[in-house]
Amino acid sequence: MANFEAYQEYQRIEDYEEDSPPGEEDLLVHVPEGLKDSWHHIKNLDNFFTRIYHFHQKNGFACMMLSEFFELVQFLFVVTFTTFLFNCVEYDILFADRAVNHTNPSVSPLDRNKITLPDAILPSQQCLDRIQDNSWIVFLLIMAAIFWIYRLIKVIFNVLSYWEIRQFYIKALKIKMDELCNVTWQEVQSRLISLQREQQMCIHKKELTELDIYHRILRFKNYTVAMVNKSLLPVHLRLPLLGDVVFLTQGLKYNFELILFWGPCSLFQNKWNLHPKYKRASNRLELARQLSRVILLAGVANLLLCPLVLVWQVLYAFFSYAEVIKREPGSLGARRWSLYGRLYLRHFNELDHELQSRLSYGYKPAAKYMNAFASPLLAVIARNVAFFSGSVLAVVISLTVYDEDVLTVQHVLTAITVLGVVITIARSFIPDEHMVWCPEQLLKCVLAHIHYMPDHWKGNANKSETRDEMAQLFQYKAVFILEELLSPIITPFVLIFLFRNKSLEIIDFFRNFTVEVVGVGDICSFAQMDIRRHGNPQWMSEGQTEASIYQQAENGKTELSLMHFTIKNPCWQPPLESSVFISHLKEKVQQDAQMGPSTQLLLSEAPLCSSLLSNDSATGPDNLLASVLAHPVLTAPGLPRRDRRILPTSTTASAAASVLASLSASQQPHIGQPFSAQSLMPSSGQRPHESHMYFSDRTMVDSDSKIHSSALMSELASAEMSLHAIYMHEVHQQNSQSQASGGPFQAPLPLRDPSDMASGTQTVHAHPGNRSVPGQLRLGGWAEVEEEEEQEVDPSNISPSKQASRSSL
């Protein structure tokens, strides 16, 4: 990773003309009187667009306000119930350590020594006296009351502001509340862009683009993703005995954002402009000292508040997870994408629901890859522990069934619970006997959905070091809970001893990588996905980028983010440099497709390849992905063929290019026969009315509902991006290996002339004997759907109505 000390010698990236279109700097737009309303010339468009997005994702006003109300009630319940348990319960009576004799004549003699629940609860006055006599409890209650009142004021403000958003949806966007769940974010966004032409919400630009909206919603998120990409945030720790670990919790992330973005001493003077003093290099040392003092104060404040936050974390974790652990002890062994993983794997300009959907698709293959590693020694121990614990549990349960009085014996229920937990934990260390050891292919399947992977993982999928690094992205839920519990203790020390040392590098980062865009404000320059400024020559941008090694985004994030945004927003018109890169990539795909297998062959191998990857999904795109990943294995030299044909050896890159070329050809409106999406769906048992046919990039014959169409298009769009990720990684690995071995480096294709770009023509490199390919290609063209669920959610099993309620991958 680049050394950020070298940033000291850089000058701030200049703002090019496309960032500030001539004539729009002082643009004042005249709006007809009839179109003026409360949504003309909105002062804080960042907040406005963010609320529109959250309103859509959280399913409208009623759901949002109900959630806010129950959050208040939940906090009040935790505080009052905890206070009651500590001050109003006689535990010596509850545990029968002290006898209770009921002298009431109405009580039966047999029941006079029986303990009832009211016997263990103190009278209200005595309970109140206990609370008042404990100054520590009184202090905690006062702090909780202050925080609850603050939350109440915030909820009231949200009710008023989101009611305005509700009116905006109904009156301006013409979307009824009962239809909101069936409207994709793509449609909401297109209506916002159309509304800008009628009512100038932003008076500095005549037209809004999809990228403008993303920039405003994700302004600070893009900065955070860039800092993680450049290893600027101190989240990598080296601990004794544990070695290298990644520590990033909600509390630590909150402090980072408070210090840098929206706190009283942050670097931004408002929500959309970096303070001018941070844009000048003359006083960078003084600014670094100021930032260091701010970080120190934040660390000390965290240290002072540590007891309060720690008490709340413990109580909230207990009330949230105690019942789940008792009911399903194995839930702690489930995995989740870590907070660091979400930032590391996130594209620039990727909304929350798009990221969540992509990670949900990748959850199952990631879990299979992590479960493929098993310790034989632990497996032997676990089998015996499970045997002994199960034997004792079976005897206790048998005795309980024979005579229920066994349950009255002290600690019998505790023993049953503990034995059940021990058995569940032991079984988690026993590997599946039917599992096929294929780590390299599983890791490629994970890459298809998460899109990012360090270079040194290639060819090392079977090593424990790779698994440990993957565990930093895909952690156990138990580890997540433990990190959150330790966060109040560790966060102050990270801020004081690690984050302070990054002050000068942070100042240089924001100066060097901030650009001002008219109508948007100051944004992270990486978020522009500009290949010329931040491209990496090793990621197919050779000859197209002027970026130094310190200005390049790591792991091909600029290139992959550009492809992702282009596919997700097919109406977006990329800048000239980005268009050149996309055209170059398409030409490279067409070139490699000539050496790849046909799509029909890949489809015929889909069932076998899905079986090899233990993929039980029945969706066409997933099966096609499995064919692309496993086809090079089936055609490897020396393997027996299923038929007598001699199939040429192919690579994963050529197989992916072949499918991408077919998808591009299917979107040509007037060339050949249209490519049927039905060929990507299961062929068995499909009814004729379930077929879908693309006649162009905008027209689709669909006899089912619009929701079903959106779900299908979303799966195909996700598959297209997955294929691009696989293809770009494979080409990157091939080029890196060629450079490392000193072999012939594959020269990049000649770039198109800008005049050709303007005319819409495209150069296609033909090869003798190769099949003809379409000349004009188009990327993307599908709407999006979100997977709201995390972890075990299988996107293929989500109902169409749920899928269509979001826009996603």
Tell me what the structure shows.
- This is Autophagy-related protein 9.
- The chain crosses the membrane at residues 61-86, 136-153, 294-319, 377-400, 412-430.
- The chain is mainly α and 809 residues long.
- Helices cover 53% and strands 3% of the residues.
- It has a two-stranded antiparallel sheet.
List the helices and strands and how they pair.
Elements: H1 45-57, H2 61-87, H3 91-94, H4 124-133, H5 135-172, H6 185-198, H7 210-217, H8 219-229, E1 236-239, E2 243-246, H9 250-262, H10 284-327, E3 335-337, H11 339-344, H12 352-371, H13 376-402, H14 412-428, H15 439-450, H16 464-473, E4 474-476, H17 477-499, H18 503-512, E5 514-517, E6 521-524, H19 531-534, H20 557-568, H21 576-593, H22 599-604, H23 606-612, H24 620-634, H25 652-666, E7 693-694, E8 700-701, H26 706-741, H27 754-759, H28 800-804
Antiparallel strand pairs: 1-2, 3-4, 5-6, 7-8
Summarize the model shown.
The protein has 809 residues and is mainly alpha-helical. The protein is 53% helix and 3% strand. The strands form four sheets. A two-stranded antiparallel sheet has the order 1-2. It has a two-stranded antiparallel sheet with strand order 3-4.
